[in-house]
Fold each of these.
Amino acid sequence: MSTTKTRKKIALIGAGNIGGELAALCARKELGDVVLFDIPSREGVAKGKALDLEQNSAILGYDAKISGTSNWADCAGSDVIIITAGIPRKPGQSRDDLVATNLPIIRDVADNAKKHCPDAFVIVISNPLDAMVYEFQRRTGFDSKKVVGMAGVLDSARFNLFLARAANASIKDVRAMVLGGHGDDMVPIFSACTINGVAATQLIAKDTLDGIVKRTRGGGGEIVQLMGTSAYYAPASSAVAMAESYLLDQKRILPCAALLNGEYGYSDLYMGVPVVLGAGGVEKIIVLDLNDEEKAMLAKSAKSVQGVVDVVKKAS
């Protein structure tokens, strides 16, 4: 009897708000069978969401097995791992405040991923993002091409939306790029921002653009203040876009937190940059020709990221 695995396997580490939405999207897109993992005290939540989503497949007509577990062995052999494990932000908290809480969690996830899923493509969502993905890759020793952080797709999506609203244009026509760390120093690149090929700077006044940049940088915090916890619909869609590009070898150019080795003048640092995502993982890091102002903003962002990474290193 053949034991050939025909469907891909996707492990979602953390069955909270983002984990549940990730599972729903992966199933509806039929990207593979899904394992929702959480700690033993939350195994019932993982199993319940999995059962609910499987029953939903009978209505919507998608073919995917979805299971919930607190046993890492059930994640063994996964093609993709998406990590949301950790404590989400609360009102008044910065992403950096989460280091002490989420560092032990990402280390435990890293150790188990290395043992059970050594060949997986890994997408980290847990905050503070740039430091958590750095620590995951450092601890596992996985090829950095197979370990990325989800931030830039989400930040760019927020930027896209605000630009579309300001220009009274279709969201489908907006193309924007946000680089740097996932935080208040993220860097919107106006030179790479168009609305159906027309420069956004030609359609939107500078003071309005400045306001959009400010709102984009605080986009996550705005949602935390409104509902008391982190966003989950757009973050989940962002991570699934990355997973889909890898699984289907789409070779999309997406801004991701990737390990830099001299690109943009930085090394041994995970930071948001445009990359080509395909079956090889990060197949290429694209270096944009930044102007002096953009370089200065990126330097400020890199300094912020390095500061949090240094905290993580000291806790080793």
Amino acid sequence: MTRVKRGTIASKTRRNVLKKVKGFRFGRSTKEIMAHEALVHAGKYSFAHRKDKKNDFRRLWTVRINAAIRPHGLSYSKFINILKLKNIEIDRKVMSDIADKKPESFKRIVEFALAK
């Protein structure tokens, strides 16, 4: 079997790792082992926080809908219950956007839900 010198590959790997950690603080941006460990942790956090972001946005939508429905004399939970009982299927994300950007349209949705 022939001998393979791996200097080029090793330096390529090192260069790529250090490129990814540019902007990290202290030894994590300059030392290869610390940089690799920092990348592994960053990857774990980014995966976990991508999942958390979905929950954060759902909470935001709930708060926006609740704030928009209060002047109509309802709470968020009662409003959602009315929509479910009347079989009005509208996405919370969309409803939040309507409540935030087009309050007159949201008012019509509320009136329709209460009148039906």
